[in-house]
Design brief:
Layout (H helix, E strand, L loop, with lengths): L2 E3 L45 E9 L2 E4 L5 E4 L4 E5 L4 E9 L2 E9 L2 E3 L4 H12 L3 E6 L2 E5 L5 E6 L9 E6 L8 E5 L4 E5 L4 E8 L3 E4 L3 E2 L6 H11 L4 E7 L3 E5 L5 E6 L2
Antiparallel strand pairs: 1-8, 2-3, 2-4, 2-11, 4-5, 5-6, 6-7, 7-9, 9-10, 10-11, 12-13, 12-20, 13-14, 14-15, 15-16, 15-17, 16-18, 18-19, 19-20
């Protein structure tokens, strides 16, 4: 995938990400300084702490399918983060009754050749230029702007750690795709480091995995592959932290080195 990347943090002066004005009417004065109850309505389902995948955006009566990677999560700490598809963003967030407000939004600025930037810009405007009315239907969330534009989202649950083939994306491996699969019944992990096959014991705890010593094949590959393989081998014979959210696995070794992988579809 070829991308022309220029990562720039946008300020409040950028039109697509201006601070949001406070909503009027039923909202109480001073109520927008932090996170709200995290629910839509008195007995509605929680919207905070959920990974929402963006399905579509409707602007000026035209509906566009959202970019595949577009998503949003509103944390209980009053922060929202996610992706418009190409660019990532973060913002302050308040959930108050059936309204969601994002403010102080900032985003990266990249040009991605594999998607329509016009659709991403429409999604960014819809999410960040004013208070949003929210409605839920099961695991689906609809956000509506004051002008009647809508963003439709659906809940995306975390992928199971065990039994999933995790393709490693960081560090980048240029040869055969490096991947790992955890077997719950056998208590093992196996896969490829990009050059050599690997097997080891794996005991999964609460937020951590204890990996045994790695047993590998003994092939010698080009220098770049061996360098990435050396970094991956640093995970083994250690107790490492792990996090799944929702189709991305992050492994962090005791020295702070991070390995990321995505679930094969």
């Amino acid at each position: 995938m070829n991308r022309q990347k220029q990562r720039i943090t946008l300020t409040a002066a950028v039109a697509a990400l201006v601070p949001l004005v406070a909503a009027c009417g039923a909202e109480q004065a001073g109520g927008g300084s932090g996170g709200g109850s995290g629910t839509i309505g008195a007995a509605g389902p929680a919207v905070t702490g959920v990974h929402w995948s963006v399905d579509s955006v409707t602007v000026d009566g035209r509906t566009h399918q959202a970019p595949e990677r577009a998503h949003m999560t509103i944390g209980d700490d009053g922060r929202a983060e996610g992706s418009f598809g190409c660019n990532t963003f973060s913002a302050r967030a308040a959930v108050e009754g059936d309204r969601i407000r994002l403010s102080d939004a900032a985003s990266t600025e990249m040009a991605c050749e594999d998607m329509s930037m016009a659709v991403e810009e429409a999604l960014a405007r819809a999410l960040t230029t004013g208070p949003l009315s929210a409605g839920t239907d099961g695991d689906r969330l609809t956000l509506t702007t004051a002008d009647g534009d809508t963003v439709r989202l659906s809940e995306q649950r975390d992928t199971a750690l065990h039994g999933t083939r995790w393709t490693i994306t960081t560090p980048a491996v240029s040869g055969d795709a490096a991947h790992l699969t955890f077997d719950e019944q056998q208590g093992t992990v196996s896969g490829s480091l990009g050059c050599n096959r690997v097997n080891a014991e794996a005991t999964v705890g609460d937020g951590s995995i204890t990996l045994g010593a790695a047993s590998t094949t003994r092939m010698v590959c080009e220098d770049s592959l061996m360098a990435a393989e050396k970094q991956l081998l640093g995970l083994f014979d250690n107790k490492i932290d792990y996090r799944v959210e929702p189709d991305t696995l992050t492994l962090t070794s005791p020295n702070g080195s991070t390995v990321r992988a995505v679930a094969d579809q």
